[in-house]
Amino acid sequence: MNILAFETSCDETAAAVVRDGREILSSVVLSQIDIHALYGGVVPEIASRRHMETVAALAEEALRQAGLDKNGVDGVAVTHAPGLIGALLVGVGFAKGAAFALGKPLIPVHHIRGHIAANYLHFPDLAPPFTALVVSGGHTLILDAADYTRIRVLGSTVDDAAGEAFDKVARVLGLGYPGGAALDALAARGAPDAYRLPRPHGGDNPYDMSFSGLKTAVLSLLNSARMRGTPVDEAGLAASFTAAVCDMLVSRTARAAGELGYDKVVLAGGVAANSALRRALTAALPDRRLYMPPVALCGDNAAMIGAQAYYEWASGALGDMSLNGYANLPVESCSFYVNP
Predict the structure, then answer these.
(1) What are phi and psi of 132, to 5 degrees?
(2) Which has the closest alpha carbon to 109: 73, 151, 159?
(3) CA gap 16, 256 in Å, rounded
(4) Cα 310 vs. chain centroid, distance in angstroms?
(5) What is the number of H-type helices and E-type strands within the chain?
(6) CB 198 within 8 A of CB 204
(7) What's the rounded Cα separation, in Å, for the pair 318 and 196?
(8) Rounded CA separation 156/283 (Å)
């Protein structure tokens, strides 16, 4: 089954063709980083306008690279939630039009499920059940993936997402936006015990996390040092901050894997590209099979949406022309799907 997929949940416009949920026939991503870097973050109105300007051309390019014409498409998939609502609506509207014009099934995909499915494209042997850690700019989740479409949240952040904390710390260190990769490179030159930083608890749920207090501790340390004229070991601070984030993520993921009893753990999301997190998970889970996507599949892309769409389609979860975009939607929630 060849699925033409679209991803427009934030500031990347992406189109791809994926066969049977496992094989990438084409994948095209148009980043808007240079535009939004001028403002220090994503500007929703600019993002949605850019999607409108480019999504049709990317669809044509994805088909061209796949060596297909429109008759070779068996289904149309799109990220419908969560994300920036204006950006989502561009992708949803275009996908609805494409599905209607082609007379093909419309397959809505939850963005978080898509991130998990990025691993299916790289690991042909990977199948649920497994424990999943999804860490991106807007989401930090520990999940029980009992099946391809049965996914349950075990824990999440109660405030900032880990990726947001990385970007904010990178910004105050003068590393620009987005700062994840630059902060990772800086941390690699520092000692992770250079500064004592907190590991806040997320509340009563042992799997919940909190990154706001850790971020504030770093900002307070920097502001205090600058007011006193005290030098700051920026590489050491970056390494110490990264170590604190990794400690919170890895300890909870390891606990979840142990309590669920699964022998597989999956890492996904944009922050999955962080080298320290990948090393920490590898060291903490020697008795489990760990799946981490290549860096090229960590960020937002349409191939991951096409991969998950195959399993949504196989389960009978299809959308119709009433499909809408949702800025927020639990990863478990697909109750508005229809089964024609």
Answers:
(1) -125, 135
(2) 151
(3) 33
(4) 19
(5) 10, 10
(6) no
(7) 50
(8) 22
Rounded distance, CA 307 to CA 116, Å? 9
Class of the CATH domain delimited by 2-116+298-314? alpha beta
Q: Are the folds of 2-116+298-314 and 128-294 the same?
A: yes
CATH number of 128-294: 3.30.420.40
- Mean pLDDT (whole number) for 316-338: 83
| CB contact at 8 A, 194 and 236 | yes
- Helix 180-187 vs helix 162-172: crossing angle, to nearest 10: 70
For position 259, what pLDDT does the model report? 96
List the chain domain ranges: 2-116+298-314, 128-294
> Is the separation of the CB atoms in 2 and 25 below 8 Å?
yes
pLDDT in tens, 266-324: 999 999 999 999 999 999 999 999 999 999 999 999 999 999 999 999 999 999 999 99
Beta-bridge partners for 131: 144, 265
pLDDT, tens digit, for every residue of 137-159?
789 999 999 999 999 999 999 99
Task: Give the Å distances, CA to CA, from 273 to 100, 137, 235.
Answer: 37, 12, 19
Amino acid at 255: R
Which CA distances in Å does 156 have to 24, 191, 246, 265? 30, 28, 14, 16
